[in-house]
Amino acid sequence: MTVIPRSHPRYRSLVVRAGLAEQMQRGLVVPEGLMAHGRGEAFDYLLGERTSPSAARAERAAAAKLLLAKHPVLSVNGNVAALASREVASVARAIPHLQVEVNLFHRTPRRAELVAGELRAAGVKTVLGVRPTARLRGLASDRSWVDPRGILRADVVLVPLEDGDRAGALVQAGKFVIAVDLNPLSRTAKVAQLPLVDELTRALTRVRREALRLRKEERRTLEKVADAVSGPELRREALRTIQERLLRLSKARA
Ligand code: ATP
Ligand code: MG
Predict the structure, then answer these.
(1) Which of 17, 78, 210, 245 has its CA 20 to 30 A from that of 2?
(2) Is 97 inside a domain boundary?
């Protein structure tokens, strides 16, 4: 592997890329996942590579919604396992009834095992979806497999970096979908009831922190927090964040 100098201004981004490339060699990440990551990076640039105030509110609402849920599930694909297994494990610890399920767009038994292995190594005790036996309606082939103990019976699903079709099928199946997607224009962000327009590790870290803060609150308080945001408004605010930033930058002298 190439050595990345610490002094490089985009050190973190380069380290993450090298990690993803390595995980692709192992078969955990698919080539399409690298492209999806590139699109995410582009939107993060536009958003200023930090959590916007509206994303922070959305992440607080997400924590409340997950705490209120009967069967909350966090869905994990190859990119999520490669980028944020530790954060997934921390969210699962902060919300003890939350289940973690492997959910692959390009599913093979080996990839499912690799994702599960990554999650277990990071401290996730139970990983569902390694050999799923149920299917979601409205989706073709491999993409429809779900675990009957997990996503099939879930009421709230946290789906980072999900494809628009599958997020839509989850909504059709009556689930409340919380998406993590840096692109406020993507179909995923549009169909999800609660889109978190933020980078994956930042989003999960905040969801965890808010869950720990809100854990002892009464249902009524949690319901208020969860209802304080709306999907269309969050997407508009993300677009406004980008617009205002570009406008400011376009007027700057240097
Ligand atoms: P669709 O319109 O079907 O939702 P898409 O544009 O979302 O398509 P996908 O390949 O389904 O494309 O999803 C990748 C999405 O994940 C992109 O929108 C990208 O912005 C987002 N993304 C990639 N990496 C990250 C990341 N680290 N954190 C948050 N979002 C990310
Ligand atoms: Mg998408």
Answers:
(1) 78
(2) yes
